[in-house]
Design the sequence.
């Protein structure tokens, strides 16, 4: 009898559990999670039979369709009925609100009954509300979303696909402005380590200084590059600078012995020559500046390789083998032999070579470029620019000609003098 009573108690407890949690394996508020690779529209559930994940530039995206046997993202996007979600690297692993998120994302749907032409941070009027979470771990992308359309219908989906892609996990943030960290530079000298970070896609230090809208720069004693968290101060910081080329008022420049009210910390690990792991969290004037970086930095001493001794004619490139110079009294001629077996002939005033600089067709009627049966000049209505230098002591010559149309060439070397 006692055993039967105990059995009834267990049954009663299970009944109460199911009553409080009717779906059994839900999310705690009575709502059951959608099965993987399915969507629901106002409660009606449909399977997504083809799913793919890929990259568009630096942004990861996932696309899915109810149609079966489609193996690539391109095939799915051409299927006529699909869901598409793409996010900036800064949103990977985060749940974000479609109405308030400022980082880049795109949600599109051509599903019957749930059209979304393109929902982005700048254009989200197609939805009343919605959240999306896009994760990518161990080669597996998972997207979960709950969206209220302007029609009032509820669109939910749970998508997953596996593919090895490279997602940039490095970030740089200035206040609420968080961006992927796309370039880093380093220099080590006299017991100090100098690191530069930017969201701009630049490849050399000179480009950083000349082209980046804004970037961070930190200089620290190399003894502090030890993987230990350092609180900024006289002994741990030489300089922290924020350079904003568009708005100097957003610039920051503090020193270890002149923090100007700044506070914060950093952790820097040197993993090898040019390879660093960096976490920076510094606040100045109420604005936080953060860097999370792990990877290769480019030396500030690296210079871009300048391609030379080439000739490009209507999209076909040839190699220039040598140059011959006839230096007359007022007009000089340069003959450039190249692999097209047809010489290029440059005619220009003597003053172009002796003074050096950048010149255009409009500056002299004697400035022409001939190739084959075509002569490029001001008289023939052409545009043309020449950058030239010449050292008469050793006949070292540098020429770069371009005319934004058919022809471009560059030569650097010694010219043979001819009469």
Sequence:
């Amino acid at each position: 009898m006692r055993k039967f009573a105990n059995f009834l108690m267990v049954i009663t407890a299970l009944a109460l559990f199911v009553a409080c949690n009717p779906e059994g394996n839900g999310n705690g508020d009575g709502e059951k999670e959608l099965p993987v690779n399915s969507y629901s529209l106002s409660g009606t559930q449909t399977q997504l039979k083809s799913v793919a994940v890929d990259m568009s530039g630096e942004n990861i995206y996932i696309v899915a369709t109810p149609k079966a046997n489609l193996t690539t993202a391109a095939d799915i996007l051409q299927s006529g009925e699909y869901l598409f979600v793409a996010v900036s690297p800064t949103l990977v692993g985060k749940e974000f609100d479609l109405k308030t998120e400022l980082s880049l994302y795109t949600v599109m749907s051509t599903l019957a009954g749930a059209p979304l032409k393109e929902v982005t941070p700048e254009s989200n009027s197609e939805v009343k509300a919605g959240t999306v979470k896009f994760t990518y771990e161990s080669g597996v992308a998972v997207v979960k979303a709950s969206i209220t359309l302007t029609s009032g219908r509820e669109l939910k989906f749970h998508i997953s696909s596996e593919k090895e892609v490279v997602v940039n996990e490095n970030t740089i943030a200035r206040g609420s402005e968080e961006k992927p960290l796309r370039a880093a530079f380093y220099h080590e000298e006299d017991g100090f380590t100098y690191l530069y970070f930017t969201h701009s896609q630049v490849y050399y230090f000179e480009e950083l200084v000349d082209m980046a809208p804004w970037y961070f720069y930190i200089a620290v004693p190399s003894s502090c590059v030890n993987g230990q968290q350092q609180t900024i101060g006289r002994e741990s910081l030489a300089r922290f600078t924020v350079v904003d080329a568009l708005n100097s008022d957003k610039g920051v420049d503090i020193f270890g012995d002149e923090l100007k009210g700044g506070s914060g910390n950093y952790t820097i690990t040197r993993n090898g020559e040019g390879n660093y792991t960096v976490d920076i969290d510094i606040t100045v004037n109420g604005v936080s500046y953060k860097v999370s970086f792990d990877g290769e930095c480019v030396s500030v001493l690296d210079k871009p390789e300048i391609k030379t001794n080439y000739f490009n004619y209507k999209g076909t490139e040839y190699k220039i083998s040598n140059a011959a110079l006839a230096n007359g009294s007022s007009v000089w001629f340069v003959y450039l032999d190249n692999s097209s077996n047809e010489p290029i002939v440059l005619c220009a005033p003597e003053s172009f070579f002796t003074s050096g600089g950048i010149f255009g067709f409009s500056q002299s009627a004697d400035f022409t470029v001939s190739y084959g049966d075509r002569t490029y000049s001001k008289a023939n209505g052409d545009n043309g620019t020449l950058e030239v230098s010449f050292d008469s002591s050793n006949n070292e010559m540098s020429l770069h000609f371009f005319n934004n149309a058919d022809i471009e060439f560059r030569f650097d070397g010694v010219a043979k003098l001819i009469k």
Summary: The first strand starts at residue 38 and ends at 41. The mean pLDDT is 91. The chain has four helices and 33 strands. Residues 282 and 326 are 62 Å apart (CA to CA).
